[in-house]
Specification:
The chain is of the alpha/beta class. Helices cover 43% and strands 19% of the residues. The protein folds into 2 domains: 4-117 and 296-312, Nucleotidyltransferase, domain 5 (2-Layer Sandwich); 130-290, Nucleotidyltransferase, domain 5. It has 10 helices and 10 strands. α5 (164-174) packs across α6 (181-189), α5 (164-174) runs parallel beside α7 and α6 packs across α8. The protein starts with a strand and ends in an 18-residue tail after the last helix. Zinc ion binds at residues 113, 117, 138, 265-266, 298.
């Protein structure tokens, strides 16, 4: 029997509701971006985010259900992101999901936001084989995650300072390219020789699978002081970030003997990173997976997919589910 899961995602600055059947059929995928609300501040303002989620979440649930062509009784389970993220933002989704699960008398499934990003891959390729290695790169995380099976995650590397997306956002702000920074940097650097200036690559201790991007930000600031153009700096910065991400992911893949490498999270929308990792994985004889761009940035379809595998395992949450802003993968 098939199961339709209504999934809610409110961890940061997108209010999103999706209806996903059996972890693969996306019947509805509604995303309301708050980017215009936060743009004038140059970043996400937590209090503004919570208020917008509050205004948007109920109408978006109605919209998603209508798009899916289902009535409330056809919803088999309710899923929600309960961390990591902004506590006030998470609480809006968690509270809405609990109320809905209670009213419909359906099981509630709590999903880790990063798990959701990884599962965006299973949404399009449910046949992915384990063990696999996923590079999760978003505004808040740069994680190398080894996955031994569904729901079995081990963190094998991570950032010691800024997350990759955070570095993109900060450098974009420094160069007055706007917010969010990732797409702005990609656009500004397009067609420009990334080798016109050199920026440092932080590999840390030999063999380390950790990342550090704060030095790169400082180096970019120095180039700006020297009068280099935003496009030249953007191209060099993007190249430096992607080089380190790709190298370390491939080192980890070799060390843990995986057959598949996945890319996930908002920064996975970056063209240079997608093609760079795809080429290196292919050259090493590994299978490479990456969600379509639309499913890389925050959405609820990925949460509905991750929730399906939890549902199959009978991994349900109680109505005492709480937001956990610092939730780690595997917790
Ligand atoms: O996963 P996501 O939508 O939200 C979080 O969970 O953080 O990721 C957002 C991050 C932002 O830092 C944004 O600048 C970055 O993903 N991003 C990109 C691109 N599109 C979004 N970074 C590089 N290139 C892109 N095309
Ligand atoms: Zn995210």
């Amino acid at each position: 029997m098939s199961i339709a899961i209504l999934a809610i995602e409110t961890s940061c600055d997108e209010t999103a509701v999706a209806v996903v059947e059996d972890g693969v059929r996306v019947l509805a995928d509604s995303v309301h971006s708050q980017v215009p609300d936060h743009r004038k501040y140059g970043g996400v303002v937590p209090e503004v985010a919570s208020r917008r989620h509050l205004e948007t979440v109920n109408p978006l649930m109605e919209e998603a259900l209508a798009r899916a062509g289902l009535g409330w009784p056809r919803v088999g389970a309710v899923a929600v992101t309960y961390g990591p993220g902004l506590v006030g933002a998470l609480l809006v989704g968690v509270t809405a999901a609990k109320a809905l699960a209670f009213a419909l008398e359906r099981p509630l499934v709590g999903v880790n936001h990063l798990e959701g990003h990884v599962y965006a891959n299973f949404l399009v390729r449910p046949d992915l084989r384990f063990p696999l290695l996923a590079l999760v790169v978003s505004g808040g995380h740069t994680d190398l995650v080894l996955m031994a099976g569904h729901g079995r995650f081990a963190l094998v590397g991570g950032t010691r300072d800024d997350a990759a997306g955070e570095a993109f956002d900060k450098v974009a702000r420094l160069l007055d390219l706007g917010y969010p920074g990732g797409p702005a940097i990609e656009k500004a650097g397009a067609g420009i020789d990334p080798g016109a200036v050199s920026l440092p690559r932080a590999y840390l201790e030999p063999g380390s699978l950790d990342f550090s991007f704060s030095g790169l930000k400082t180096a970019a600031a120095r180039l700006k002081q020297r009068g280099l153009s935003p496009g030249v700096i953007a191209a060099a910065f993007q190249r430096a970030v992607v080089d380190v991400l790709v190298d370390k992911t491939m080192t980890a893949a070799g060390r843990y003997g995986v057959g598949t490498v996945l890319l996930a999270g908002g920064v996975a929308a970056n063209g240079l990173l997608r093609s760079g990792l795809a080429d290196r994985a292919e050259a090493a004889g590994l299978s490479f997976g990456c969600p379509p761009r639309r499913l890389c940035t925050d959405n609820a379809a990925m949460i509905g997919c991750a929730a399906y595998y939890r549902f199959l395992r009978g991994d349900f949450a109680g109505l005492d589910l709480n937001a956990v802003p610092g939730l780690a993968l595997g917790d």
